[in-house]
Give the backbone structure.
Amino acid sequence: MAKESEGMNFAPKGKPNPVVRRGDFSFAAVGLDHGHIYGMCNGLIEAGAVLKSVYDPDPAKVEAFRRQFPETAAARSEEEIFSDPGVKLVAGAAVTSERCALGLRVMSAGKDYFTDKAPLTTLEQLEAAKAKVKETGKKYMVYYSERLHVESAVFAGELIDQGAIGRVIQVLGLGPHRLGHPSTRPAWFFKREKYGGILCDIGSHQIEQFLFYAGAKDAVVTHSRIGNYNHPDYPELEDFGDACLVGDNGATQYFRVDWFTPDGLQSWGDGRTFILGTEGFIEQRKYMNLGIENSGGSYVYLANRSGEQYYDVNGKVGYPYFGRLILDCLNRTENAMTQEHAFKAAELCVKAQIRAIRVSPPGGLSI
């Protein structure tokens, strides 16, 4: 099975759309534990950033990374990157439980931080991150890739902004993933303390999308569940999770995440988002169209008072988040994503995890 058939190696490439001149914005990569670092760097480079240097304590990871980004220098330490005045932002995809600590070091060094999701795993880490942002004035931004790096997701947001479906009242998210053979995964992936739990990890995508599409500033987790249905050899892995939320504006959410994508599916996951509004609804088919061979992704379906519309937006919308992030770092604005939004999504996914009922098959529950 090709590596690209697993979500952790999802690294979209778009068309170059620079928002700055070459050399105006340089960044570095630190922490190569998750494959999402490649997508994060692709997005920034396409928006005009220069990837100046990379560091990871594992030389093999650095070597593999530099094969993809050969113009990038290998730094000898974190400190070499942190002390480089030319580096404005540090992108990282460390072990999930270590992402906050890395961010604190980055911001203490006077640089903005861009981390893979989930950005942290505990409420204590969240408070530390908030305090460091307040202290330094630096950014702690998050790669919520299922919205930011998927053209159908970007386009759905544009339709909502245009009033295509009226006021959003419910968001239903499906985030299935393919586990693949366990040998393709690092050991930390199977340690609950390290990856944070399924709702904290891949559930973070779903909660962030709900807040964004519904225009909610806050939400309450009304119900959440986790379980290990089919992986007894990895007792700390949660292969299923779902949750319900209610936003501060009355909008609701249900989402499901799991590790049960079958090997026969053409994609690592048939990710879908259904958005219900007062005047219509939207469906996103993010990565594929079921039953259509090599269908790719980024399909949007819209129904409203004007009728029905189908959009194939692959290669047509782009990924504006990355350019906006670069300009936010240079201008100290918040057009890509507010810090409040990034932290609120992180907070809610941790709370969903903490409060989850554990389903113990066959039958039985534990709190």
Notes: The two ends are 37 Å apart (CA to CA).
